[in-house]
């Protein structure tokens, strides 16, 4: 993760989720026999990620894939990752487990978590598929915008139209009145084959309002609500398929597309499939993690800052990295992309500023906190608040770290508007330093049963619940 504050450094050998610490160098073993084998093409066709040495040209990658009974969908030579399709169930065997993996095939053979959890918004906290009209009283409230002082920031800066924010999600309704001026069709694409598709249908949502809701938090500008940075542009990059799945090849395509289009910030309110939390011992996890890490690193090198949701499992992500000792078998798990070192990872707080009960956390994992809301009052004594934003056909309240991350992406957009030449590392540093520090709660007993629901560790300046603190839009524009 990004460099820790001095307070965090005191407890730190803890930043175990940095991708470079998890993934050993991959051994690039070629298929045992590059001659065309006798292919079995009567099985189910699945997509595969295939790793090559970076710089491998298209013709060489395609030849090797064809020799293993596959067809190349796209090759990304700049990172040495290709996406292929094969109906031969021996395809990954010929490449070896350190080079080829099909998340699609793995999903077909194992149970996975629910799409709403992977997307980082609570199914139980949503109001349902039908948006309700926004009444004037609620319209004037905007509690989450006020919590990050976005209402005050708007008096100084709404964000520049030169700034482009990539919303990697389920697509954006570009026809929504509050988003019509923000969505840039020329910078939008769908990634559901692993290769970018620029047709409007490819990046327009079908059965999910999630991406439109996230987009509104960043840059809506209408009668119903105002986003954190209503003056910036949005690129709709669809990485969520009809089943609500986010396969690693979708994300790889999304990061490469963002780099190519000159995106300044990406919002990533999801956890990549097929595992809820990616454990490197799982078959194929090393390939998927390495492919996503390379793609994210390429985007970062191209000047793209990534912001990601920590997830809604209410777990200490650091505790999932148990190093093996004598007589034990440790495991290294991380959410992708939130666990990667180049990412600004965001936890969610309720309207009173307390960590939302569902939000995951972790010292050295979480960088910042932002409003995600909580349907129930944190003290369990009445209703809480969720975050209102755009959905196709209207507005809706949703809670989750999915809603927290775009608040940070919006503030990052305001920062880029002020500092267009700042690097991702510089932006990460400024975001941390402009945050309002939040101390660990004296008691975090949301059920009032006498037992803490989670343990917060660290100092006020940096801790496991809130990272460096609550993101602050006003400080961003003043800086």
UniProtKB/TrEMBL annotation:
<dbReference type="InterPro" id="IPR050131">
    <property type="entry name" value="Peptidase_S8_subtilisin-like"/>
</dbReference>
<keyword id="KW-0720">Serine protease</keyword>
<keyword id="KW-0378">Hydrolase</keyword>
<keyword id="KW-0645">Protease</keyword>
<feature type="active site" description="Charge relay system">
    <location>
        <position position="210"/>
    </location>
</feature>
<feature type="active site" description="Charge relay system">
    <location>
        <position position="402"/>
    </location>
</feature>
<dbReference type="InterPro" id="IPR000209">
    <property type="entry name" value="Peptidase_S8/S53_dom"/>
</dbReference>
<dbReference type="InterPro" id="IPR036852">
    <property type="entry name" value="Peptidase_S8/S53_dom_sf"/>
</dbReference>
<protein>
    <submittedName>
        <fullName>Subtilase family protease</fullName>
    </submittedName>
</protein>
<feature type="region of interest" description="Disordered">
    <location>
        <begin position="104"/>
        <end position="134"/>
    </location>
</feature>
<keyword id="KW-0732">Signal</keyword>
<dbReference type="InterPro" id="IPR023828">
    <property type="entry name" value="Peptidase_S8_Ser-AS"/>
</dbReference>
<dbReference type="Pfam" id="PF00082">
    <property type="entry name" value="Peptidase_S8"/>
</dbReference>
<dbReference type="GO" id="GO:0006508">
    <property type="term" value="P:proteolysis"/>
</dbReference>
<dbReference type="InterPro" id="IPR015500">
    <property type="entry name" value="Peptidase_S8_subtilisin-rel"/>
</dbReference>
<comment type="similarity">
    <text>Belongs to the peptidase S8 family.</text>
</comment>
<dbReference type="InterPro" id="IPR023827">
    <property type="entry name" value="Peptidase_S8_Asp-AS"/>
</dbReference>
<feature type="domain" description="Peptidase S8/S53">
    <location>
        <begin position="162"/>
        <end position="449"/>
    </location>
</feature>
<dbReference type="GO" id="GO:0004252">
    <property type="term" value="F:serine-type endopeptidase activity"/>
</dbReference>
<feature type="compositionally biased region" description="Low complexity">
    <location>
        <begin position="104"/>
        <end position="118"/>
    </location>
</feature>
<dbReference type="InterPro" id="IPR022398">
    <property type="entry name" value="Peptidase_S8_His-AS"/>
</dbReference>
<feature type="signal peptide">
    <location>
        <begin position="1"/>
        <end position="23"/>
    </location>
</feature>
<feature type="active site" description="Charge relay system">
    <location>
        <position position="169"/>
    </location>
</feature>
């Amino acid at each position: 993760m990004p460099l820790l504050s001095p307070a965090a450094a005191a407890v730190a050998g803890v930043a175990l989720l940095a991708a470079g610490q998890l993934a050993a160098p991959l051994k690039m073993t070629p298929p045992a026999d590059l001659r065309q084998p006798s292919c079995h093409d009567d099985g189910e066709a699945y997509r595969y990620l295939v790793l090559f040495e970076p710089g491998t040209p298209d013709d060489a990658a395609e030849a090797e894939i064809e020799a293993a009974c596959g067809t190349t969908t796209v090759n990304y030579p700049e990172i040495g990752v290709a996406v292929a399709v094969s109906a031969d169930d021996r395809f990954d065997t010929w490449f070896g487990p350190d080079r080829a993996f099909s998340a699609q095939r793995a999903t077909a053979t194992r149970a996975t978590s629910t799409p709403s959890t992977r997307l980082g918004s609570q199914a139980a906290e949503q109001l349902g598929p039908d948006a309700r009209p926004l009444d004037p009283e609620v319209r004037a409230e905007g509690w989450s915008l006020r919590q990050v002082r976005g209402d005050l920031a708007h008096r100084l800066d709404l964000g520049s139209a030169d700034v482009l924010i990539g919303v990697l999600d389920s697509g954006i309704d570009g026809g929504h009145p509050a988003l019509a001026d923000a969505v840039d069709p020329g910078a939008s694409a769908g990634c559901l084959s692993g290769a970018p598709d620029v047709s409007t249908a490819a990046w327009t949502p079908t059965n999910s309002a999630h991406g439109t809701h996230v987009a509104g938090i960043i840059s809506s500008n209408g009668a119903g609500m105002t986003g954190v940075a209503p003056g910036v542009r949005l690129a709709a990059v669809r990485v969520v398929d009809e089943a609500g799945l986010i396969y690693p090849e979708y994300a790889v395509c999304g990061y490469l597309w963002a780099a190519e289009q000159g995106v300044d910030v990406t919002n990533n309110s999801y956890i990549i499939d097929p595992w809820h939390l990616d454990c490197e011992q799982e078959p194929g996890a090393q390939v998927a993690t390495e492919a996503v890490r390379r793609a994210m690193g390429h985007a970062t090198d191209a000047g793209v800052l990534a912001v990601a949701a920590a997830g809604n499992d209410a777990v200490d992500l650091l505790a999932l990295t148990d190093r093996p000792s004598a007589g034990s078998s440790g495991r290294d798990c991380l959410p992708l992309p939130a666990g990667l070192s180049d990412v600004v990872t965001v936890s969610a707080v309720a309207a009173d500023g307390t960590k939302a009960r569902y939000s995951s956390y972790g010292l050295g994992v979480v960088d910042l906190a932002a409003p995600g809301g909580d349907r129930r009052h944190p003290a369990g004594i009445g209703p809480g608040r969720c975050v209102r934003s755009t959905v196709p056909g209207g507005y809706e309240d949703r809670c989750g770290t999915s809603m927290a991350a775009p608040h940070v992406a919006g503030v990052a957009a305001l920062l880029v508007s002020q500092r267009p030449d700042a690097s991702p590392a510089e932006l990460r540093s400024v975001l941390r330093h402009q945050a309002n520090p939040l101390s660990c709660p004296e008691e975090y007993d949301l059920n009032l049963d006498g037992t803490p629901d989670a343990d917060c560790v660290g100092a006020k300046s940096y801790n496991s619940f809130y990272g460096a603190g609550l993101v602050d839009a006003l400080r961003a524009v003043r800086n």
